[in-house]
Specification:
two-stranded antiparallel ribbon; alpha+beta; about 270 residues; globular
Length: about 270
């Protein structure tokens, strides 16, 4: 019986092969290999709201209201992610500011390398100037690399750099940007700029202009006082300001001083941390 069964199986295989030859049918393709999983953040990274829920988060690069004019690659959710030491230092600064009637507001925190790559591609496309009227009205786009506004690497990708401002309490809501709306220069008087519930810092966020330099002598009065308040509150907790941008601070010492990460900005990237 065993020999007979083997022979029958052989005939069945041969018949199937003949049928394929006659009909031109092809075998079903093998299923595609599953896509590689997205990288996750090291355990040293946390969502800021797991450390401090009172800091306002207005994550600009998840929206079209930024110098690129569209949501930026890698920003899956409007979430601030930082290394834990940086997040805890922000919490300490926030505690002191709350006692004075202010709150911090973050615009950008950890930035994946794919987002930086998006900035680089945009900067090389000299025809795309849809947001020039607000963010770089006096700068020729061909000079963005030479003038230092765009670079192939960003300290944000190391996880301890944050862009932020301060808001007087109680915080009024900031209206949503409407793509295509009329743009106003980022260094215009506050009443003319895009509305922001931040105190007046002299320019809007991400303003590619020398007025954004933290100690520009043209910034005086309340605007200068506001920059000094932000700077001193953060310096007390170990943050160092980038002098060309009043909003840009890096916590020192950085846990990852030379590593540029590329996990997406999403809660799943820090799930369980």
């Amino acid at each position: 019986m065993t020999g007979l069964a083997s022979a029958l199986r052989t005939l069945a295989v041969a018949a199937a092969a003949g049928l394929l030859a006659v009909t031109g049918a092809v075998a079903a393709p093998a299923p595609p290999a599953s896509a590689a999983p997205e990288p996750k953040a090291p355990r040293e990274f946390v969502a800021l709201d797991s450390v401090d829920r009172t800091i306002i988060q207005e994550m600009r690069y998840t929206t079209a209201h930024n110098f690129v004019g569209e949501p930026v690659d890698g920003y899956r959710q409007p979430l601030c992610i930082l290394t834990r030491p940086a997040a805890e230092a922000l919490h300490r600064a926030q505690t002191r500011l709350l006692a004075r009637g202010y709150t911090l507001k973050v615009y950008d925190c950890y930035r994946p390398q794919r987002a930086v790559d998006h900035f680089v591609r945009w900067a090389k496309d000299l025809a795309d100037e849809r947001m020039k009227g607000e963010f770089y009205p006096l700068v020729d786009k061909s000079r963005l690399f030479e003038d230092g506004y765009i670079a192939a690497k960003s300290g944000h990708s190391r996880g301890s750099t944050v862009d932020l401002t301060i808001v007087r309490l109680p915080a009024a809501p900031t209206r949503a940007y409407v793509p295509g709306e009329r743009l106003t220069k980022c260094y215009a008087p506050r009443v003319e700029r895009f509305p922001d519930n931040s105190v007046d810092m002299g320019t809007g966020y991400d303003c590619f202009d020398t007025l954004s330099h933290t100690d520009d002598p043209r910034i005086q009065g309340a605007q200068r006082a506001h920059r000094q308040l932000l700077g001193s509150a953060l310096a007390e907790q170990g943050f160092v300001n980038l002098h060309e941008e009043w909003w840009h601070f890096t916590f020192k010492p950085e846990p990852f001083p030379s590593t540029f990460f590329d996990f997406p900005v999403a809660r799943r990237s820090v799930a369980g941390h």
